Amino acid sequence: MKLQVKLALYNTLTKLAIILFTGLLILLSIEKISYNHIELRLEDDERETLKNLGSKDINSHLTRLEKYTDYNILQEEFITITPIKFQPTATNGNKFTTETRNIEHNEQTYRILTHQFNFNNHSYQLEIGVAITSIEELKSIIKRFTLLTLIIALALTLASDLIFTKFLLAPFYQIIDRKLIKVNDPLNFDYEKIKTSTQDFELLDDSISSLMKKISALFSLEKQFIANVSHELLTPISIISSRLENILLQEELSEAGENKMHASLKTLNRLKSIINSLLLISKVENNQYDKADVVMIAGVIMEIQEELEDRMDEKRLSFTNNMKYIYSIMGNRPLMHTLLFNLVNNAIKYNVPKGSIIIADELKDDVYILEITDTGTGMDQKQIENAFNRFEKFETDERESYGLGLAIVKSITAFHDIKVKIDSVKGKGTSVYLVFNRE
Amino acid sequence: MNVLIVEDEKGLALEVDEFLSHEGFTVEHARTKRSASEKIFVNNYDFILLDLGLPDGDGFDLLKMLKGMGEREDAVIILTARGAVDDRVSGLEQGADDYLAKPFSLNELLARMHAITRRKHRLESNDINVKGLKINIQNRTVTYNDERIALTKKEFEIFNYLVLNKNRVISRTNLTEHVWGDVLEINSDSNFVDVHVKNLRKKLSAYIPIDWFETVRSIGYRINI
């Protein structure tokens, strides 16, 4: 979950809690206040009624020991005076209850004051009720109102929080995007500060920048090291190789000596190849090549086919080019040539006599796929996993292999942002897929 | 023809010197940028073999200086182990005639020098005669009694290279490198070049006997003229 959303959710939840709490508080206090108010009124009514016991209307009922009932038109209030069994000390305090009463087939909830008193040597029970339906209605209105406020407040705070946190976190996402995600090459790092008034983000920005400075220093150091190694190692090789060649020119050299010289030159050449391959890999990984050429894949494949034609003829391999698309990338042409050359060369090297090599391609919405399939010796799963490791070699009838071909392939593909996939069945053949990202 | 070797590695300079002297060149040697610029200032050379990494500066500066002098015909071949990617490109752009990465084969160096000589001086006779076969470097053709022998580009390269380095065993690796250039890992397949040589010999032997085109077992080939 994004930080922005988390912050907004947290704010919303705390606000929700506050509103719920206040809502409940209001609801409870309204009940309490209104009951209190009603009870005061009921006590007023009680005093009034007791004062009027002597009035003609009530008195006539009381003397006949009949129940006296009075209520207004809408049955919102009622008074009943009921004679009860005589109790000498009947006068007691007021009792309040909430009850539902049915008056003239009209059921309502009342707050009722009950009071027992003695009058003319008889005991009576006085009940005064006030309908509280209106209060219940008020309560439900308040409930609904609270709910509505709650929902509106929630929506508003959520929206405002989202907008605010988005604004607040914008520099943060900018830093992530510009300083971390889009950086492929530490040497071309964008040191321009992201505008923000938040100290924490400034700190983050500065830390990333200083980290990048360290990395790019290391990068240039490595570049320097590669240049030094190539010079320091290749120069002595060059001297020895020239020296051996000069010895070969001497006419008094025995045939055995000559053979040994040639063998030494060959070994030296091997050393040179290994150093050059490792240097190539390091240089590619160190971003020392540019990607300024428009490289047409089909064109490179045709070139390589021409270059390797004789080798294929020798093994009597059939070469089928089923490419349907003219697809070009921005890249480094010599590197792309080396990449495809290595792959086609492997397809020849590990093929069986009279086997075949098929080149095909496929254009999808987001990717372009180049497929090189051979009918060679194939690899098992473990071999595929190790195929791209440096100095990994497979059984081959070729006399020498340094096991750096696929390591070179790996570094060049990574440099060009190409994915490599290998499908292989031992004894049947291998398919190598190059997946180019279309952007 | 005179050659100036600008190279701070004495060992290498001596070997190149020995080889080229053997081939009939007059060789001079400069170890620093300073002494090289003095020599270039005083003498005209047919070839300047230029190392880029010199103790007191960059070989490119010498190239710039030479090009700034005008009226100079000195051919420049850059020899370097610096291996920087752009060096080859910028070297050629700045007017170098060729570029060889160290370690290089002396035979290859010689072949390059010959090629430059041909290009620069437009030799009157472009044809080289080998046992009745005429090699035309300009048109890259081989003819026998005015009949053209259909050789592929690579077969021609191999034949030409072997003729240029006549009477000398040329190893497969050397030949491969000459024909294929710096394609990496390629050198590992030493029989790479055999196919081409086999086809070349077949084509030539259709016209004349080729007992002079010798296969030196487990090493390479030699043309004895």
UniProtKB/TrEMBL annotation, chain A:
Alphabetical list of CDD domains matching this protein: HisKA (cd00082)
One example of a Gene Ontology biological process annotation: cellular response to phosphate starvation
GO molecular function terms attached to this record: phosphoprotein phosphatase activity; phosphorelay sensor kinase activity
Keywords carried by this UniProt record: Kinase, Membrane, Phosphoprotein, Transferase, Transmembrane, Transmembrane helix, Two-component regulatory system
One CC-aspect GO term: plasma membrane
Protein name: histidine kinase
Transferase as UniProt keyword: yes
Residue stretches in coiled coil: none
Domain Histidine kinase, first and last residues per copy: 228-439
EC number from the UniProt entry: 2.7.13.3
Chain ranges passing through the membrane: 12-30
TrEMBL record, chain B:
Keyword Plastid: no
PTM annotation (4-aspartylphosphate): residues: 51
Sections of the chain in a coiled coil: none
GO biological process, one term: regulation of DNA-templated transcription
Signal peptide: none
Ranges for domain Response regulatory: 2-117
InterPro entries registered for this protein in UniProt: CheY-like_superfamily (IPR011006), OmpR/PhoB-type_DNA-bd (IPR001867), Sig_transdc_resp-reg_receiver (IPR001789), WalR-like (IPR039420), WH-like_DNA-bd_sf (IPR036388)
GO function term, MF aspect, one: transcription cis-regulatory region binding
Residues annotated as domain OmpR/PhoB-type: 125-225
Keyword entries, A-Z: DNA-binding, Phosphoprotein
DNA-binding keyword on record: yes
Any one GO cellular component localisation term in the record: cytosol
Domain of life: Bacteria
Alphabetical list of CDD domains matching this protein: REC_OmpR_PmrA-like (cd17624), trans_reg_C (cd00383)
DNA-binding region: 125-225
Protein name: DNA-binding response OmpR family regulator
Organism the protein comes from: Mucilaginibacter oryzae
